[in-house]
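Worked Example 4.2. Read the sequence first, then its structure tokens.
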Amino acid sequence: MARPLVWRAGKSWFLAISAFKVHLKLVFFDGAHLLPLPPVAMKQAPARALDVREPDTLDDKTVAAGVKQARQWPGWGKA
């Protein structure tokens, strides 16, 4: 499975998006700093995730706000 990483030009990775058979997982590498806090704790703190399944109602504004906040944190690695 390919794992697309979202990064800021000249900075670092801040989001991974993974597609599975029954859901989509958005992993925010510094997710513990986001408000509202993404609901899924990851083994590697401070990463947090949001799992989206087909019947779920996705709040686009909340996801967009999370991405905007995540861009402000240091992230992971170098681009």
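Now turn to a second chain, presented in exactly the same format:
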Amino acid sequence: MVRKKANTITPDKIQKALILIVVGVLIRIALTGYANIEPVLAIAMIGGMMLGGVFAFFIPLAIMVFSDMVIYALGIEG
């Protein structure tokens, strides 16, 4: 039996990371007007637990970058 490394980047992990990023962006945009609600931390912890490695850093960074771009483009004030 061959064991995979924990830090190996596989298409399955990339798909899960993209799903978490899209969900995080949508939730962050939807909750922009509410104070002290940060879904990014919860999604970062879930992503780090499920995927580990570089994804633990990449997922929250991507959520913040993409959601800030959408919030700025749409002119949403929070």
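Notes for the reader: The mean pLDDT is 87. Residues 1 and 50 are 22 Å apart (CA to CA).
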